[in-house]
TrEMBL record:
Binding partners and assembly: Homodimer.
Pfam families: Dabb
PROSITE patterns: S_R_A_B_BARREL
Species whose genome carries this gene: Paenibacillus lignilyticus
Protein name: Dabb family protein
Ranges of residues in domain Stress-response A/B barrel: 6-98
Gene3D superfamilies hit by this protein: 3.30.70.100
Length: 101
């Protein structure tokens, strides 16, 4: 990751029971769909193991530039995922974007 790169992370809870087939399907579909967007780099899916916060899952990805990040946000696959999966299935979330200092 260089100084123009953006580390985009979102931690979230699903409306589905943690570890359920529906939750696993959401995580798998999210990875499959979002990694199909060419500007997405270093995509990872995480399951929370700490008792220090009450979020269950996380997605993390890197964009080479602000332009790539904006391309991702406007990409039809991302827009469709947000509208048809994220909004109906995510209970709550926290989004964080970092650049190296």
């Amino acid at each position: 990751m260089n100084q123009t790169s953006i580390q985009h992370m979102v931690i979230f809870n699903l409306k589905h029971e943690q570890g359920s087939a529906a939750a696993e399907q959401f995580l798998n579909d999210g990875e499959r769909l979002l990694t199909s967007i060419p500007v997405v780099k270093a995509f990872s899916v995480f399951k929370q193991v700490s008792v220090k916060n009450d979020y269950d899952y996380g997605f993390s990805m890197v964009f080479d530039s602000q332009e790539d990040y904006e391309t991702y946000n406007a990409h039809p696959v991302h827009v469709d995922f947000v509208e048809n999966r994220w909004i109906p299935e995510v209970d709550r979330f926290l989004e964080i974007d970092f650049k190296k200092r």
